């Protein structure tokens, strides 16, 4: 039993040496890639595809927003927030935007998709709660604006 405890303790110590910045970077890329790829399916070059508008009118039916406006907002948000997340700029705000989008998708569009949505939410929630880590533009900006306030993660 002592050998097992020693192995488990050694494994825990090794895992605790993984820098948060690396964990956050992986979470940022994982979440951003989902939304970026989704956004890419909605465009042809710089134009939003006609079938995107059709999907928002006939299948997605997001409440409150007119379908065409929802198509534009969603397409732009998926691209802009994904890029912001990847480079670590306005990361918490970007994560919050994508969390809200995930909630709308879960509640109004694909409620049966919760196994995927909970994974997106977990990665985004980590960034919202703990920040993007040191491998980010946010960290670079904040370390110059408020050197004493920048976390050393």
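Q: What amino acid sequence fits the structure above?
A:
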């Amino acid at each position: 039993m002592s050998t097992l405890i020693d192995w488990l303790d050694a494994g825990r110590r090794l895992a605790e040496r993984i820098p948060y910045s690396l964990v956050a970077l992986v979470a940022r890329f994982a979440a951003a890639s989902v939304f970026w790829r989704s956004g890419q399916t909605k465009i042809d070059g710089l134009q939003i595809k006609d079938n995107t508008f059709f999907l928002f009118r006939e299948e997605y039916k997001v409440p409150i927003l007119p379908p065409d406006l929802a198509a534009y907002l969603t397409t732009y948000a998926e691209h802009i927030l994904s890029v912001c997340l990847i480079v670590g700029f306005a990361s918490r705000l970007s994560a919050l935007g994508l969390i809200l989008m995930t909630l709308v998708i879960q509640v109004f569009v694909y409620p049966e998709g919760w196994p995927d949505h909970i994974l997106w939410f977990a990665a985004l929630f980590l960034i919202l709660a703990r920040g993007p880590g040191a491998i980010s533009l946010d960290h670079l900006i904040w370390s110059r604006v408020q050197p004493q306030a920048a976390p050393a993660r």
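Q: And what stands out in the fold?
A: Residues 20-145 form one domain.
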